[in-house]
Write a structure and sequence with these properties.
By secondary structure, this protein is mainly beta. The protein has one domain. It contains 2 helices and 22 strands. It has a 22-stranded mixed beta sheet that branches. The longest helix is centred in the N-terminal third of the chain and has 6 residues.
Amino acid sequence: MKLSSTFWIAALFVMPTLTPTALARRTVTEQKTIPLKNEKTLETSLDFGAGEVELKPLSGRVNLFEGHFTFRPGKIEPEVRYSASRTVGRLDLETHSIKKFFSDNDARNEWDLRFSTEVTHAFDIDVGACEAKLDFSGLPIEEMLFDLGVGDCEIFFHAPNPVEMKRLEINAGASELTIIGLGNARFQNLNFDGGMGDFTLDFSGDLDGDRHADISVGLGSVEIRFPPELGVRVHKDGALSSVDFDPDLEEVSDGVWESSNYSRAKNRLTIELSIGMGSAELKRAEN
């Protein structure tokens, strides 16, 4: 499709002449801002290799996106590309390695990203060996695809998603991942696939109606927490797995557990749980 308006923002900067040693030690912080115009939807692709990344909601009607990037020029630099067609914006954020990142202990790569609460969002996020704190509280999100490599990541939904999330897929490798407030994500279906890491899935928040979650873990461990008022049914698969059920969950048939309030609960969650040679713990969260 031909774009009606397109502009590119590239994080390749003009710098004074420096020796290779001075260039390697120099740290810069650059800000990239995209004004909010006619956009109603923002599709974001985030590909972050290594370093530290933080994401937060951005209130106000002025800017669609704000980013602060701290890095060492000549080693690793961010690339920010944006295009717009009518009411849909397309934002691509990517780590651009000038030299091999892991070969330099001095290398620094820190991103602070803010996204407008005035538009609906679709996120495709791929992060590698990094520390990530991603706060999606109150952001209108219709779709999210999230891949985590070997990093340490925290995801928060402290406030309800203003729109229903049609698709939520999370893949995590040998990593530590904690997600708080999944009830506020307002997903229709959650698909979680974990590898060898340690995972915490907290379903607190404003989970409304009947929701469904497919949770699969290989050699890792997962802790699944759910609030006292939520009705929960669990279908368990995996003969070699170790699963510790909360005392409130009772086996009602072969491989099926239900909470004591499941039949009368206003809001309910059905979990398809598949554990390979790993372990799982399901428990009620405290009030």
